[in-house]
Amino acid sequence: MGSDPKRQLLNLLEWYREAGITEYFVLGSEGGQEAVEEKREERVSCPENEELLLKVREEIGDCRRCPLWQTRTNLVFGEGNPCAKVVFVGEAPGEEEDKQGRPFVGLAGQLLTKLIEEVGWKREDVYIANVLKCRPPGNRNPKEEEIEACSPFLLKQIEAIKPKVICALGTFAAQLLLGKKLPISRIRGKVLLGWKNYRVFPTFHPAYLLRNPKQKAVALRDFEVLKEIAEGEG
Ligand code: SF4
After folding, report:
1. 133 CB under 6 A from ligand 1?
2. Ligand 1 contact, 68 CB (< 6 A)
3. What's the gap in Å between 208 CA and the centre of ligand 1?
4. What residue spans define the domains of the chain?
5. Which of 156 and 11 is assigned the larger pLDDT?
6. What percent of the chain has pLDDT over 90?
7. Which superfamily is assigned to 64-231 in CATH?
8. Three-state secondary structure along the chain?
9. Which residue is closest in CA terms to ligand 1's atom 4?
């Protein structure tokens, strides 16, 4: 960082954005630090999780652990509520995500947001990430070695948040979190015990739903079940 305070602040905000933290509280003339802390507490009641997520982002750094760094525009870390009850996990960033550095912001992302809202949540209530943090060229499938290099960061994000349930969007996320190569058609809509005994709920990837719109009703039912699991007792 340079010595210009404005530049320092912009760099800091950019660093927070990359770590998926997009809400800040600005000190006004009234209230002071205490009021800011209080307001922050209201919104983020798990600063420990937030801290852990920042550490994961720091650990990734300007990652070059697999060849995908060479073709990425932006690394897409993930974003959302550090206290989320549900973490959505997709496959990898697409073109728009690569451009913006944010997960699920293209057409498939808009559909995901719609499904989240259909069941009464807001996008800010949940956390969204991918198995891979960089876009595979031409949106090809992730390679084994890329998943091996990148997935430890996703798992650390999950450990930081400790959600009640993880919604695996599509085959790659489901296979990673369940440790089994099962077709999504066989496991979709079921609650299964996966990595570290987290509850994993696989459903269709929204990109699949864009190609197969008739399945949207099935996906919506899945999201309703997901909400019951996330908000239920136990
Ligand atoms: S995909 Fe993951 S492991 Fe590969 S360069 Fe990007 S952040 Fe690193």
Report:
1. yes
2. yes
3. 24
4. 64-231
5. 156
6. 79
7. Uracil-DNA glycosylase-like domain (3.40.470.10)
8. CCCCHHHHHHHHHHHHHHCCCCCCCCCCCCCHHHHHHHHHHHHCCCHHHHHHHHHHHHHHCCCCCCHHHHCCCCCCCCEECCCCCEEEEECCCCHHHHHHCCCCCCHHHHHHHHHHHHCCCCHHHCEEEECCCCCCHHHCCCCHHHHHHHHHHHHHHHHHHCCCEEEEECHHHHHHHHCCCCCHHHHCCCCEECHHHCEEEEECCHHHHHHCHHHHHHHHHHHHHHHHHHHCCC
9. 66
